[in-house]
Write a structure and sequence with these properties.
Radius of gyration: 22 Å
Structural class: mainly alpha
Length: 445
Amino acid sequence: MAKRLTYYILLGLVAGLVVGWILNASIDDGTAASAAQLKDIAGYFSIVTSLFLRLIKMIIAPLVFSTLVVGIAHMGDTGALGRVGLRSLGWFVCASLLSLTLGMILVNVLQPGVGLELAIPPATASSGVDAAAFDLAKFISHIVPDSMIAAMASNEILQIVVFSVFVGVAITAVGEKAAPLVKAIEALVAVMLQITNYVMRFAPFAVFAAVTATLAERGPSILGDLGYFMLCFYLGLALLWALLIGIAFVLIGPRTRLLVRYIRDPLILAFSAASSEAAYPRTLEALDRFGVPPRIASFVLPLGYSFNLDGSMMYMTFASLFIAQAYGIDMPIGQQIAMLLVLMVTSKGIAGVPRASLVVIAGTLSMFKIPEAGILLILAVDHFLDMGRSATNVIGNAVAATVVAKWEGGLDEREPADRDPPVAPTGHGPKTNVDSFDKISPGQG
């Protein structure tokens, strides 16, 4: 089923390109009436995509909570938890700097915006994107949920992680008395992964609808208008993939060659749906088959969705400096480095959902006296760029989990990459031995 699903998603992607192109070519005659008709048609197709993304969001919160709690419980002590957390954050910071710096270097070397010589818009011109300034105090206080129910209802992944850490550590401290609760949460993991299998069967239809809607409304011409900008950005993503996988190869060894094969399904899903979040359940399963211990993957991946969106971060420096080039605004290297450091902070905590990067870019542009309305330059092709950066976010988080697992004692034995995913990953579901909690004494850690 897993292998067939990959082919179905690719088929949906190709079919969406063809149908969207045909709809645009047959209806678009350059008039406002045809544009309105295409927008209505795209809206109907978008319903299917919206339903799929809502289904994904429906399972994210309980899946993150249950897998993370069980993973922490099986670490056995808070020392291991702190060590994994510090190693994860250390990797995230280094990967973030790599992504942001690569974007800055490439946009200066390739200069995709130079020569456009656009007139600077009025100061009152708006991009239509919320550009609320970054507030450090608000960000820090927002990390801790004032209600777990509210955090799960709004899919605040970072808040869910914080609460789950408390629950997992408390279970470890309580010891044997908590074994029935662990068994129940393991059962919840198995149920949520089974629901994931049901939801994923809808993915090819959602991919078809998303691509059809975008191409029908905007037409193939948008791919040519900013073609060089898109080409430069995808070249940057390819280089980032090569760097991340190359670093992983140095740290892990030849087994890294198989990583992309194992996470192929979530990569294609993230690319087609333009959503990192949509690929989370499949990424968790794929890493388990690759040999990343579930206690590591279930901890590192949720953190990565708040702190390690490598593709999105590279896009932020790339797009911001592209807009400055398009308006002929000189950005000295010192100012560019300052922008990079600002983005390093403001990018933390953004959701792995479509268009989240634009909010951060909009807020950063105004800080450096770059017209916020410049976002309109890239908005038309942002969906196609979001596809690439969402897939890159998946590979970045997969590499992070694999490297941390290696640092924590090595990878488990591999399972076949193309077999049907299990009801629950090894260590989360039926294969988990709850008797392992006999080793945990009350108050340990």
